[in-house]
Design goal:
The protein has 317 residues and is an all-alpha fold. It is 72% helix and 0% strand.
Length: 317
């Protein structure tokens, strides 16, 4: 999801605003659904499953090589990386096709080549993501396949939605509150009936060969608050007076300036890591950091770039 929020979203928002908005909705809602599915399906992960399954009770346990990205702390099904990549890339590919083929014959030779090239790229990315997740022993094959299918379905649903482009700030607030409340309420409900949804954290800490590879930002609640912060920040940015003012500018230098400035500042901002010694503080700062990313991208940087570009004309006056 990092590339979606820190790279794809800034580029697309300043080139084609509607595509950028759709990417955020697909990524956030898709990751939220992934969290709920994981809590329901209780998927194991290979790096701990081989040590606990009775399948190898009469034989030696196979050695599985672990990597810094192996020790995910949440359940494994469906794969969040595969689901996120499929959803985001599906949204981008279908958006490019809709833009490029809007005024052309969809059955022409160039259209067919464009479709073939983009879908070949899409499936190449998905295969690479799926193979990498299986290779590092973070997922089983069926988990990444389920992730790809689910991600594509989420993206296709949002391809058919128009209300996300005119949603009010109250709508963003209500949606964020609903998604957060539903996830927390579902967690509390299952915990009340004796289901421990954090059972995977203990397994990760037990079977990961390097304790430093078990990161708090891979826990389910870290992902939840990160996504809720992003969605709420997008709503704040789209309804900010700075966004309204900067929206008047639409020149090529303005768009290029916004893209370059945003990518540079977000790269620096991404290097700031919230402290992990206190879980509550980490979750709070993760929410705030995630909300800042779309807020800066949508309103603050465009306003500053617009002001900087207008300085020469003001001096002439």
């Amino acid at each position: 999801m990092r590339n979606t929020f820190f790279v794809f979203f800034p580029i697309w928002f300043h080139l084609r605003e509607s595509v950028g908005i759709k990417l955020i909705w697909v990524a956030v809602v898709g990751d939220w659904l992934n969290l709920v599915f994981k809590w329901i399906l209780f998927g194991e992960r290979p790096y701990w499953w081989v040590h606990e399954t009775p399948y190898y009770s009469n034989t030696s346990t196979p050695h599985i090589e672990q990597f810094p990205m192996t020790c995910e702390t949440g359940p494994g099904s469906p794969s969040g990386h595969a689901m996120g990549a499929a959803g985001v890339y599906y949204a981008m590919v279908t958006s490019i096709l809709a833009i490029m083929l809007s005024n052309k014959k969809r059955t022409s030779g160039r259209a067919l080549y464009l479709r073939g090239g983009l879908w070949a790229l899409f499936w190449t990315v998905q295969i690479c993501v799926c193979l990498s997740r299986v290779f590092i022993a973070a997922h089983f094959p069926h988990q990444v396949i389920a992730g790809v299918i689910t991600g594509m379905i989420v993206a296709e649903v949002f391809n058919r939605q128009q209300w996300i482009y005119r949603a009010s700030l109250q709508h963003y607030f209500n949606t964020t509150l609903f998604l957060l409340s539903f996830a927390v309420g579902f967690y509390v409900l299952l915990k009340a009936v004796g289901v421990d949804l954090l059972w995977t954290l203990e397994k990760a800490q037990k079977w990961c060969v390097n304790p430093a590879w078990v990161h708090m930002d891979t826990t389910p609640f870290a992902s939840l608050l990160r996504n809720m912060g992003t969605l709420f920040g997008l709503g704040l940015g789209l309804h900010s007076p700075l966004y309204t003012e900067s929206k008047k500018s639409g020149s090529a230098p303005f768009r290029i300036g916004c893209i370059l400035s945003t990518l540079f500042l977000l790269h620096l901002f991404d290097s700031i890591k919230p402290p992990t010694h206190t879980a509550a503080l980490f979750y709070l700062l993760s929410f705030c950091k995630s909300a800042t990313v779309p807020l800066v991208t949508v309103s603050i940087i465009p306003y500053c770039v617009s002001g900087a570009l207008s300085l020469p004309s003001k001096k002439q006056l």
